[in-house]
């Protein structure tokens, strides 16, 4: 069946009205509200055709119509126009992302807060894989006569620290020299590319007891081993409670249970090949998110893609607005991180 202009206008009216109200849309509402110049009877006939085409459906007897996943997909692919973000909103986003860029974890959390706050949906962001990150900086400091602090900074902006016991014979000057040697020898290396030759050079240059150096190496290894996977940052889970679709307790429980499964969340957030990816309803693999849509983009440092940022909400989400927000924030985050980390 052909999608002519009249069917297109009625489909758009159903989608726009349902997104705004979360209520099934009847023929009288469309005829009265959208000024299409046709009678309710004609609208009903056209809606019947759209239903046969699988673009809208009747959720229960005597109700109006709501869009199907196929209807939303048709809208997103052919009719959606992105909403431009005004200069004030753009500046607000830049300002939020600009502060304290040295702490990447905090930056990613702020990004999630921005996304969830601006979309009223759940924001999910994956951090960098630390195991693939290179060491940028190492510092050893003495806290008191018995305790010290090891700080490791990676080229992806992750900052990790560990406390350690300091032998009485090790001075502040010893730790300062050790910091410089370790930073110089390990800079630019990932953990699995640090060769035995480099380790022997460190042992040779430092007069610290080998046992103490081994403790430092073990702590560095522990840091990278603990974060060999990808960390998930999720914000705004409470937003889903605002959505009428999730007043159904079973549906809500199914979604929240799924989001507690780290492996599944990582699988859901597959990196899009490029640009923005929109997965609608049953296009998502897991049944728990079949009532949701996922809008995903990637953020980078320079030319290297670090991870995805995503917004998860009901299939009834305001696609034109949310796609614009996700796209702009991903680009702003990329610019901020690239400028800072070079």
Quick overview:
By secondary structure, the protein is α+β, with helices and mostly antiparallel strands. Helices cover 46% and strands 18% of the residues.
Give the secondary structure arrangement, pairings included:
Layout: H1 5-21, H2 27-33, H3 40-52, E1 56-57, E2 66-67, H4 69-78, H5 87-98, H6 104-119, E3 122-126, E4 135-142, E5 147-154, E6 159-165, H7 172-186, H8 196-205, H9 210-226, E7 232-235, H10 249-259, H11 262-268, E8 277-280, E9 292-301, E10 304-314, H12 319-341
Antiparallel strand pairs: 1-2, 3-7, 3-10, 4-5, 5-6, 8-9, 9-10
Helix pairs in contact: 1-3, 2-3, 5-6, 5-12, 6-12, 7-8
Give a verbal description of the structure.
This protein is α+β, with helices and mostly antiparallel strands. It folds into three domains: 5-78, Arc Repressor Mutant, subunit A; 88-128 and 230-341, Beta-Lactamase (2-Layer Sandwich), CATH 3.30.450; 131-226, Enolase-like, domain 1. It contains twelve helices and ten strands. The strands form three sheets. The protein has a five-stranded antiparallel β-sheet with strand order 7-3-10-9-8, with helices on both faces. The chain has a three-stranded antiparallel β-sheet with strand order 4-5-6. The protein has a two-stranded antiparallel sheet with strand order 1-2. A hairpin with a 4-residue loop joins strand 5 and strand 6. Helix 1 crosses helix 3 (40-52). The radius of gyration is 27 Å and the shape is elongated. It starts with a helix and ends with a helix.
């Amino acid at each position: 069946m052909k999608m002519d202009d009249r069917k297109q206008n009625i489909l758009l009216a159903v989608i726009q009205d349902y997104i705004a109200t979360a209520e099934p849309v009847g023929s009288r509402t469309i005829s009265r509200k959208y000024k299409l110049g046709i009678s309710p009877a004609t609208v009903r006939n056209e809606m019947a055709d759209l239903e046969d085409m699988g673009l809208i459906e009747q959720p229960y007897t005597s109700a109006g119509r709501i869009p199907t996943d196929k209807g939303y997909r048709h809208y997103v692919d052919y009719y959606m126009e992105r909403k431009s973000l005004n200069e004030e909103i753009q500046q607000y986003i830049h300002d939020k992302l600009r502060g304290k860029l040295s702490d990447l974890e905090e930056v990613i959390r702020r990004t999630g807060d921005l996304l969830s706050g601006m979309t009223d949906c759940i924001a999910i962001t994956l951090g960098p894989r630390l195991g693939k990150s290179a060491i940028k900086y190492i510092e050893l400091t003495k806290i008191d006569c018995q305790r010290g602090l090891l700080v490791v900074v990676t080229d992806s902006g992750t900052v990790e620290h560990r406390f350690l016991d300091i032998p009485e014979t090790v001075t502040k000057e010893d730790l300062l020299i050790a910091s410089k040697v370790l930073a110089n020898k390990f800079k630019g290396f990932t953990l699995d590319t640090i060769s035995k030759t480099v380790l022997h050079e460190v042992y040779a240059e430092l007069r610290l007891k080998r046992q103490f150096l081994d403790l430092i190496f073990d702590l560095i290894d522990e840091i990278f081993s603990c974060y060999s996977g990808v960390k998930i940052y999720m914000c705004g889970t409470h937003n889903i409670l605002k959505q009428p679709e999730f007043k159904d307790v079973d549906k809500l429980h199914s979604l929240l249970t799924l989001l507690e499964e780290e492996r599944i969340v990582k699988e859901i957030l597959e990196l899009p090949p490029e640009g923005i990816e929109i997965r609608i309803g049953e296009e998502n693999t897991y049944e728990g998110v079949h009532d949701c849509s996922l809008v995903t983009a990637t953020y980078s440092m320079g030319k290297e893609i670090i991870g995805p940022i995503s917004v998860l909400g009901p299939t009834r989400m305001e696609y034109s607005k949310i796609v614009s927000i996700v796209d702009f924030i991903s680009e702003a985050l990329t610019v901020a991180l690239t400028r800072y980390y070079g």
